[in-house]
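SAMPLE LOG
Freezer: B-3
Tube label: C17
Construct: single chain, 386 aa
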Amino acid sequence: MTRPNLPIYLDYQATTPLDGRVLDVMMPYMTTKFGNPHSINHSFGWEASAGVEKARREIAALIGADEEEVVFTSGATESNNLAIKGMAYALYPDKNHIVTVCTEHSCVIESCRSLEQSGLEVTYLPVGADGILDLDLLAESITDKTGLVSVMAVNNEIGVIQYLAKISRICRDKAVCFHTDAAQGVGKIPLDMKALEVDLMSISGHKLYGPKGIGALYVNTNLKPQPVPLFSGGGQERGLRSGTLAPALCAGLGAACALAEKEMEQDNAHVQQLAGRFLEQLQTVLDGITVNGSRDKRWPGNLNLTFEGVKSDILVSGIRDIALSTGAACSAATPKPSHVLTALGLDRKKIDCSVRVGFGRMSSEAEVDFATDLIIEAVQKARNPY
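STRUCTURE (predicted):
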């Protein structure tokens, strides 16, 4: 077997490599097209603004939105904060209840906890052993005081995809605003805002081969009221997000979305083939491997695996040529067990033996085969050290 270049990156949920074609689009805005996109009196501002608006159209095209519904932010964390806190502030005091899910990203959970400290009520719904939300329980949890439901599209730790269309219908029937954190979904699964009737959706640039430090919030123009802005300033982005935009980053996100629109089907087939190859090779040699989360309703490029009897930190440290994750990147520095795996019903022993493996556009069969061999060797050694 041909030895691939090392180290091998298999942590695509933490971040994706910047696609070279995206960088090519960004470069002019870092050099010659350096104008402030909000400067309206000269050509430097006009050309920077043109780049930003082109990116806005490309994002809108990918998600089936109107371009004026795309609000640029610094990333999904800001988008989630703006959506959740912004709508909570807009609806209070008539509506003072939020419904979300216990497997959400930490920035959603912490935004809700912050609002609880301000006197709002939040319901954190459980999930089944497969990571899927019980829709009947969701419907029962919505009251006449509920203003917002926030449910992640694709889970960052286990890759499970929630039933967004059905959730949206429940929210529509009960006249409740629906927000989804789609940082791990945009560019990977089809998301059409008009068909789904989502009110708010968060997007992250660096999860779909774009740059870090840029994201967007889809805000349905028919949503009433609109979110209250978190920043005070010059009133950019429809008054929802003040601050000077970075044209290079905006252009990069737009280019990444344009590529995703063209190559999503190809990318999906690629990661599905690699993930299947990886898992089959592991399970042919090793026993005691569990895939965490639904096997059917999931993004195939995300495999969260429990290796029975092998602590994940020992496994990962023993294969330093392979980039894997023992948890979400945002919380990797904390010693607490994964709240997502805990919600699935895994005990601490199994959680401590779980790793996340991520595949993406730049992954190759040679890398997967080499990584599989190293992981098998490391697991066998950990299970039989003498």
